[in-house]
Amino acid sequence: MSGTRRKQEGRWAWRLTGFVTVCVYIFMFAPIVATVILSFNASMFGGFPMTGFSLQWYGKLMANEAVLAAFRTSLWIALVTALVTTAIGVTTAFALVRFEFRGKQALSTLVILPALVPETILGVGLLVLIKAVDQPRTMLLLVLGHILLAMPYVVLIAQARMIGIRRVYEEAALSLGASRVSSFREITLPLLIPAVVGGALLAFTISFDNTSASLFWRPAGVETMPTQILSMLKISISPEINALGTVMILVTVGIPLIGGLILQSLTKLRRRGEPKEDTQ
Amino acid sequence: MLVAPVLLLLIFFLVLPIAVMAGYTFFTFVTAGVETSALTTANWHEFLTDSYYSGFLVKTLRVGAITALLCGVLGYFPAYFIWATTFKHKWLLLLLLIVPFWISFTIRTFSWINILGEQGVINVALLKMGIIHEPLQMLYNEGAVILGMLHFLLPYMILNVYVSLESIDRTLISAARSMGCTSAQAFREVTLPLSLPGLAAGLLLCFVLAAGSYVTPQLLGSGRDALFGNLIYDTIMGELNWPMGATLSIVLFVVLGFFAAVYTRYMGMSQIVKGLGG
């Protein structure tokens, strides 16, 4: 008797788990879905009910010079951030995984700090520093700041992948007379490609999305996409903002998804005839 | 050699700024945007004696703690479900957790206005059904701020717990079951304790990120719901009181650092590293 009751309790617990899971997923996506739907609303006001289907807000968006300028700025910053962060991050991960040096432990802790210290603090810190040495806020500062913010993620991703690549491949190349540099280029880097692409995409989105720190660091008069959205929101929530949000979602979700798909098909093509490597 | 670029970056953009900021807390504020390097403890004195500031700190820590706990409770279920389910396309459930990270945080935050606002889904639906006659005021209060933070922090929590569940040797659970444990007992005695490191890492991460937030209170809260991050922003960008802004930043840094230090003292850094994507 008690056996079946217990079994039933287990089933109820599992159902509850499934129910909460569904609720959490709905919770996470409902507002986003509502925003996308509302961006097609014909109504003048940024809210329900839907009064008809319209693309007029997208048209308005395309004619909004401030938005377009902010979009271009963010795109450039994100591209540069992705390139530089990936280059530096992968070399750092390589050094952290393959070499022993003094202060290695300290460095690997320090490098994740930008992900843990609140952006407000990083933002103020950098501003105080350049104020102390009497320098203006420049685009270079903003980009370098974004590189700092994206660095922990790129290093962690590259590190995890690097640990999975067995050293024997590199050692084989070295013992066959390859230099350190060419063994890295010919052996390690190709095996690292998934981490490189993944890290670059993440760095891109982190930069493209960054709000709080950019509010502090941007040069006077420069708006990035998120700061532009913030200043538009100060006025009112118009359907134009919903349209803008939808475009942003398409860009930031579409790029990694397409990148991931390309990557997947590439590794599938390559897999033939390649020795099995253990990842993780 | 290889680490030179990252070292330079970390020194000039992380270590040095925080060190200079710590020094700035002792500078004298003259008037908006102007300060002298005459050393004073006035900023610290003002911070420690004026209950305006300590009130902000207490409220920020309270909101951060509530958010982290709610994340823990609500995040554990999905993490457990994804781990235990026999559903074939598990990767899809995991991908859906990662997708929000790609969507602009500002957009995810303001999208709540479309749900909770006067013309949001809930109010319009309730009005249509005749349940209410006046739109409910659900935005611009502390609840909305916590909801917004919950929304952006839940994926962190779920992934952290999931990673630590994934590292559990499943034969341990089979062993417990074959020794006569019910599934509930096996969960309580084996699965739950072994997943605690991930839960703890998630709690710390959510707490720190919530307590340091600026955008969410700005968009979903009223003036009264401003948190410490907003206070810092207003002090620096609004009042141009740099020494006080630096003092407040250092306070937040030290307080949150204290929690992180207590955590690493007992749990180490490795779990956080795993949860962040390592």
Structure description:
Chain A is mainly alpha-helical. Chain A has one domain (59-271): Orthogonal Bundle (MetI-like fold). Chain A has helices at 2-38, 56-62, 65-98, 104-110, 113-116, 119-132, 139-164, 167-175, 180-209, 212-217, 225-235, 239-271. The longest helix of chain A has 37 residues, at 2-38. The two termini of chain A are 46 Å apart. Mean pLDDT of chain A is 85; it is low at 275-280. Chain B is globular, with a radius of gyration of 23 Å. Chain B is built from 14 helices and two strands, in the order αββααααααααααααα. In chain B, helix 1 (4-24) crosses helix 13 (242-267), helix 3 packs across helix 8 and helix 3 (51-84) packs antiparallel against helix 10. Chain B has a single domain (52-275), classed as MetI-like (MetI-like fold). Helix content of chain B is 74%, strand content 3%. In chain B, a hairpin with a 2-residue loop joins strand 1 (28-31) and strand 2.
Number of strand segments of chain B? 2
**What name does CATH use for the topology of chain B?**
MetI-like fold
The major pleated sheet of chain B works out as: 2 strands, antiparallel
Distance between the termini of chain A: 46 Å
Largest beta sheet: strand ordering of chain B: 1-2
Write down the CATH class of chain B: Mainly Alpha
Name the average pLDDT of chain A.
85
Strand content of chain A: under 5%
H/E element order of chain B: HEEHHHHHHHHHHHHH
Roughly what percent helix of chain B?
over 70%
Q: Name the shape of chain A in a single word.
A: globular
Which structural class matches the secondary elements of chain A?
mainly alpha
> In the CATH hierarchy, what is the architecture of chain B at level 2?
Orthogonal Bundle
Number of distinct helices of chain A: 12
> Which range does the strand content of chain B fall in?
under 5%
CATH level 4 superfamily of chain B: MetI-like
Number of strands of chain A: 0
